[in-house]
Amino acid sequence: MSVVQYKKYVWLVDTIRSAGKISREEIDRKWAGARINDNHESRLPDSTFFRYKNDVEELFDIEILCDRANGLYYINDTDINSRTKQWLLSQFAVSQSLDTSRELRDRILYEPIPEGTEYLTTIVNAMRDSRWLQVSHLRFESKEAPHIFHLAPLCLKVFKQRWYVLGFVEEIDSVHSTPKDEPRLYALDRIRHMETMEKTFRLPKNFDPQAYFSGYYGVFCGKQFTPERIRVRISESAAPFVRSLPLHHSQKEVEPCVFEWFVAPTLDFIQQLRTHGSEIEILAPQSLRRQFAEEAKRILKMYE
CA-to-CA distance for 105 and 123, rounded, in angstroms? Predict the structure, then answer.
């Protein structure tokens, strides 16, 4: 699929989604004035419209429906709460906005995305075909050459602007062994080379990516981490930020400015709590409260 063709799909999805419901006549009017209309057509031909409609559903799993009562088209939102679909639609909206307002590109700022996205297509295809990948990976702390292993990719995950792949591992040249029944997570920006293998794997019948990560905050995961009840008190000035952007799906405000999660106290979750500094007080568990107290003492001593 060419970049131009992709942009046409993006245009159609964003045009319908932003309108809520829209007639074919209105789609034609917008198409006549669209930058992506490289043939300067006065309307979007029916054959082209329905081909794009079918392609969008097949490629992106986004269904464009027609309300027969009034002839208006709309995006099927029965499963719009899907995180994948929400993310995809938001990317479409941003892409379309940039394409129609090129003069504003320098005024729209993004966080830099680490390397590794070039492997996304390879991983997605391997997941689709249930094929093993041969991966060359370099750990952050490693001063040696990358180690090579075989990976059966189970799912992809985005966290803090980084892409990660979760999968079962067959070690080749690493001294670190991993139980074959326990998946491991790898950041794509630490991968130095990847290629698809001929051998296939079978996805476990009961594997559910959402369920697997449900007890964790981010990318620190595995049997060594156990979810537990964590309760904190946050200042009135900081609480609105936590309310508007929950740290975890289990988040509850049990009292005014007192928040609770059932999540593993992993390093990435603790680091997120630390970002609130003196605006936060750990109430439970006591072990985590003591940890924060000790850190506060060390910081105070550092500045004395």
Answer: 30
- Round the average pLDDT of the chain to a whole number and report it: 86
Q: The tokens of 117 are what?
A: 């996205």
What's the token pair of residue 240?
């609105």
Q: Which fold has domain 117-207?
A: SH3 type barrels. (2.30.30)
Averaged pLDDT for residues 249-271: 96
For every residue of 90-133, DSSP letters joined together read HHHHHHHHHHH-GGGGGG---PPPPS-GGGHHHHHHHHHHTEEE
| Percent of the chain residues past pLDDT 90, beyond the cut | 58
Q: What is the DSSP string of 249-263?
A: TT-EEEETTEEEEEE
Number of H helices and number of E strands within the chain?
Answer: 9, 11
Helix (H, G, I), strand (E, B) or coil at 200: strand
Can you say whether residue 165 is alpha, beta or left, with left for phi > 0 and alpha for psi between -120 and 50 degrees? Answer: beta
Phi, psi of 163 (to 5 degrees): -95, 140
- What confidence category does residue 182 fall into, taking pLDDT thresholds of 50, 70 and 90? confident
Instruction: Name the residue ranges covered by the structural domains of the chain.
Output: 3-107, 117-207, 214-303
Average pLDDT over residues 20-47: 91
**What pLDDT is stored for residue 268 in this prediction?**
95
Instruction: Read off the pTM.
Output: 0.72
Mean pLDDT across the stretch 18-23?
A: 90
Q: Which two three-digit tokens encode residue 162?
A: 């980084």
> Phi first, then psi: what are they for 150, rounded to 5°?
-100, 135
> The tokens of 105 are what?
């590109």
Find where tokens 């829209």 sit. 22
